[in-house]
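DM from R.C. (forwarded with permission)

"hey, sorry to bug you on a friday — could you get me a structure for this? deadline for the figure draft is monday and I only need the backbone to look sensible"
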Amino acid sequence: SIATGRVYPAARIFHDRLNLVSPLVCLNGALVMDVANDKPLLDKPLDIDKLKEMVKILKREDRYFHVYSRS
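My reply, with the result:
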């Protein structure tokens, strides 16, 4: 199995190249995919209100951040 901070499509490339059949852990554990069926086993997005607060703090502290969204 691979665990990574990458998004699923990017991580899937490495998973496939290694010919793995195990689940793929993406987005620092927020998404675990059953690659064989291309379906999530676990999908745990951040709460939108908590995310907004985090973004506010990061901007105030002039910190770099990256947010992935399905939309």
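R.C.: lifesaver. The chain has two helices and four strands.
me: no worries. The chain has a mean pLDDT of 93.
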